[in-house]
Amino acid sequence: MSEKLSDDPGEGMRKESAPNTDAPELGPNEQIKAKEAQIAELKAIVLRFILPESDDELEKNNDQIINFTKKFQHEHPDYEKYVLYHVLIGSTPRASATFMDTDDLELENYIRSLITSGPDTPHL
Fold first, then answer.
1. What is the pTM of this model?
2. CA–CA separation, 88 and 111 (whole Å)
3. What does the pLDDT read at residue 3?
4. Residue 53 to residue 68: CA distance in whole angstroms
5. 87 alpha carbon, distance to own chain's centre
6. In angstroms, how far apart are the furthest CA atoms of the chain?
7. Cβ atoms of residues 123 and 110 within 8 Å
8. What is the DSSP letter of 13?
9. Phi, psi of 38 (to 5 degrees)
10. Residue 97 near residue 103 (C-beta atoms within 8 A)
């Protein structure tokens, strides 16, 4: 299942699936801090990608993200429910953004791929 953000703010964010028994259980505050750190890291990756040194790269990079987000919107009609979708497009997540990512971490993997590949590498 997708990682769903808890409706109970005192409970932090949690997975709907079975807990990982290999890692120590995080308390609500630690879960929130971990998610905030993850979001900040991914925002920084997106910013580095969309603000390159040359104007040519800027246009190519922005087009690449637009193409990915159009594909994502088509495949996920509920795209606004994903926090990392909002990170990718640079918007503030709405209250309806109740999931961090898809089950297969499609958004996080795409964002992380921006580090290792140039603007001409397809990410579709």
1. 0.72
2. 7
3. 54
4. 22
5. 6
6. 48
7. yes
8. E
9. -65, -45
10. no
Eight-state DSSP code of residue 4: E
Q: Compute the distance between CA of residue 115 and CA of residue 113 in angstroms, rounded to an integer.
A: 5
Taking the CA of residue 47 as centre, how many other CA atoms within 13 Å lie in the half-sphere pointing to its CB?
7
For residue 22, the one-letter residue type is D
Q: What is the model's pLDDT at position 32? A: 87
Q: Which amino acid is at 59?
A: E
Amino acid 14: pLDDT: 32
Three-class SS of residue 78? coil
Q: Any idea what the Cα angle at residue 17 is, between residues 15 and 102, rounded to 5°?
A: 65
CA–CA separation, 77 and 80 (whole Å): 8
Instruction: Note whether 1 and 19 are within 8 A (CB).
Output: no
List, run by run, the mean pLDDT of 10-residue segments along the chain (124 residues).
Answer: 50 39 73 92 93 85 95 97 96 90 97 75 43
Tokens for 83, please give them.
């926090």
Contacts of 92 (CB under 8 A, 6+ apart): 86
Between CA 6 and CA 3 the distance in angstroms is: 9
Tokens of 108: 């996080």
